[in-house]
């Protein structure tokens, strides 16, 4: 179980490390859009919308993860296990759930932008 969590964390971290590269790949397109008559070009709107959607999805996923951990609290107590809310497992799951949407979008954008050029 711990190794699966570590792999998930490593995957998310690896994907998020692509964020500076994605920003650098997007800048020329966004700059050319800024110089046109319509400053809200396709790539600019896509960047804004993707960030907002990833943030909202991440918040909901983190809340759902914490709710799931809270709902199993008494089951863990009565079965003699340390509740995940106390052991830190719930926080780890919530952070992973919160970062997963952003991680997936960064990876998808990297693939899309690297195939363009």
Automatic annotation (TrEMBL):
Signal peptide feature range: 1-24
Record's protein name: Phasin family protein
Key words, A-Z: Signal
């Amino acid at each position: 179980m711990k190794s699966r969590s570590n792999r998930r964390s490593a995957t998310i971290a690896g994907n998020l490390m692509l964020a500076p590269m994605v920003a650098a790949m997007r800048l020329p397109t966004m700059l050319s859009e800024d110089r046109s008559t319509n400053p809200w070009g396709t790539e600019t709107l896509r960047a804004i919308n993707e960030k907002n959607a990833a943030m909202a999805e991440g918040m909901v996923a983190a809340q759902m993860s914490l709710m799931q951990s809270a709902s199993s609290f008494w089951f863990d107590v009565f079965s003699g296990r340390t509740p995940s809310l106390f052991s830190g497992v719930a926080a780890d799951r919530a952070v992973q759930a919160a970062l997963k949407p952003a991680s997936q979008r960064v990876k998808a954008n990297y693939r899309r932008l690297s195939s363009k050029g």
